[in-house]
Write a structure and sequence with these properties.
- By secondary structure, this protein is an alpha+beta fold.
- It has one domain: SH3 type barrels, CATH 2.30.30.90.
- The protein is built from two helices and five strands; from the N terminus they run βαβββαβ.
- It has a five-stranded antiparallel beta sheet with strand order 4-3-2-1-5.
- It starts with 5 loop residues before the first strand and ends with a strand.
């Protein structure tokens, strides 16, 4: 995704990590917006449910999205 783009979460690739992500508000069907990545690319900042959330690339890579 490019900065400013939005997508809808469709699921997760890692069952163990999905629990942690869902507790942070990243639920299937939720719209997320990619804001920016840190200077070296990790972590990234997304907006979900009205708040900004910072995720490591490895965590974000387990989220499947619909464009």
């Amino acid at each position: 995704m490019l900065p400013g783009e939005t997508a809808v979460i469709s699921g997760f690739d890692d069952d163990a990590l999905s629990v942690k992500l869902m507790e942070m508000g990243l639920l299937p069907g939720t719209v997320v917006r990619f804001n920016f990545s840190a200077p070296f690319g990790d972590p990234i900042c997304i907006t979900v449910s009205g708040y900004d959330l910072s995720l490591r690339i490895a965590e974000a890579a387990t989220i499947t999205i619909l464009n």
